[in-house]
């Protein structure tokens, strides 16, 4: 069993640097993001892509393939792919025996560990406001849990929506596709991600906008894909995001929720003062000229004045 483990970590493979660079750029990934996933420096990634280190450890090649979301065979150089059948056959018999022994031992140990320990439950949830107004900036919260789990959070915004800021900062943002990625390490305490997104000005009113996301978790049980549960849609309307029930006023409970949310995202540009103004006046309305919410009751001649000004 020990020789099998050592062979896995010490064996090397020949990779094609140009292929690595092409796959990374096709997915709009930075060298820093890939380096974090593999556990090496950005200088090492650069050397791999320039074929200065054409031979790398197999374990690093496996992590690299996982970061680029391809199979390890896709990264191999032509010389490695054209390995003769006789060489492959010689290794096949010996590795098959070791694989059988290793599988039996690992299966026994796995059953024993499952019996002795309760493995952490992996959870991933998204919390959305009920409403978002055109051109408004709204907060989104992601809640993750699973002690000892390392993974990547992938969150895709509705088409045309703009990413503003996040805490913690994402490791990768594709503004064209709306894909945001975070590399996370979970422990006993719940891990939370807060981010702000802007609703497009021309988004149709009274329509649902859908978010999509998942946590690709690397846990003791293996690699898992966990869909972000909870809210995945909100209604685009002239209703403030803090007005959870959409009754045209921000009550005390809703103000407390907004205040708590703001305290947990202090470095993000969430305008809590503007929310407090609406809360003090109790009622509010959307001003189409200013493209923002205004405290008070909608004037009876509001739309007439707008038509006159035009």
A few lines on this structure:
This protein is an alpha+beta fold.
General description of the model:
The chain is of the alpha+beta class and 310 residues long. It folds into 2 domains: 2-81, 434 Repressor (Amino-terminal Domain); 123-295, Sandwich (Immunoglobulin-like). The protein has 10 helices and 17 strands. It has helices spanning 2-10, 17-26, 31-38, 42-49, 58-68, 78-81, 85-116, 252-263, 272-281, 302-309; strands at 12-14, 55-57, 123-127, 131-132, 137-145, 150-156, 162-167, 172-174, 179-185, 191-198, 207-210, 212-219, 222-227, 229-230, 233-236, 284-287, 292-295. It has a 5-stranded mixed sheet, with no helix packed on it. A hairpin with a 2-residue loop joins strand 12 (212-219) and strand 13 (222-227). The model is unreliable at 1-9, 83-88 and 302-310 (pLDDT under 50).
Mind telling me the CATH class of the largest domain?
Mainly Beta
> What's the tally of helices?
10
Apparent shape: elongated
N→C terminal distance:
80 Å
CATH topology-level name of the largest domain = Immunoglobulin-like
Name of the CATH architecture of the largest domain: Sandwich
Radius of gyration, in angstroms, nearest whole number? 26 Å
What is the strand arrangement across the widest sheet?
A: 7-10-5-3-14
Sheet with most strands:
5 strands, mixed
Q: Which whole number gives the mean pLDDT?
A: 82
Give the total of beta strands: 17
**How helix-rich are the residues, as a percent range?**
25-40%
The chain-level structural class is alpha+beta
The fraction of residues assigned to DSSP E strands is: 25-35%
Low-confidence stretches: 1-9, 83-88, 302-310
Q: Give the tally of structural domains.
A: 2
């Amino acid at each position: 069993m020990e020789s099998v483990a050592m062979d896995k970590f010490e064996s090397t493979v020949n990779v094609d640097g140009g292929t690595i660079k092409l796959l990374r750029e096709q997915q709009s990934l930075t060298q820093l993001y890939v380096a974090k996933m593999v556990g090496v420096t950005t200088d090492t990634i650069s050397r791999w892509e320039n074929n200065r280190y054409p031979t790398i450890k197999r374990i690093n090649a496996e992590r690299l393939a996982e970061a680029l979301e391809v199979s390890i065979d896709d990264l191999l150089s032509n010389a490695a792919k054209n390995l003769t059948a006789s060489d492959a056959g010689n290794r096949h018999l010996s590795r098959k025996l070791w694989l059988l022994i290793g599988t039996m031992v690992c299966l026994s140990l796995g059953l024993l560990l499952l019996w002795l320990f309760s493995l952490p439950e992996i959870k991933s949830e998204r919390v959305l406001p009920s409403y978002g107004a055109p051109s408004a900036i709204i907060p989104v919260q992601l809640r993750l849990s699973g002690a000892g789990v390392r993974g990547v959070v992938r969150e895709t915004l509705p088409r045309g929506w703009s990413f503003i800021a996040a805490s913690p900062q994402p490791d990768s943002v594709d503004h064209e596709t709306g894909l945001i990625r975070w590399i996370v390490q979970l422990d006993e305490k719940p891990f939370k991600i807060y981010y702000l997104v802007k609703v497009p000005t021309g988004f149709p009113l009274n329509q649902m906008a859908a978010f999509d996301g998942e946590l690709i978790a690397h846990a003791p049980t293996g690699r898992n894909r966990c869909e972000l549960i909870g809210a995945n849609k909100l209604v685009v309307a002239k209703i403030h995001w803090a007005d959870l029930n959409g009754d045209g006023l921000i009550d005390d409970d809703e103000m407390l929720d907004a205040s708590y949310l703001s305290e947990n995202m202090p470095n993000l540009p969430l305008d809590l003062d503007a929310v407090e103004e609406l809360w003090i006046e109790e009622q509010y309305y959307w001003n189409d000229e200013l493209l923002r919410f205004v405290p008070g009751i909608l004037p009876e001649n509001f739309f007439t004045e707008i038509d006159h000004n035009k």
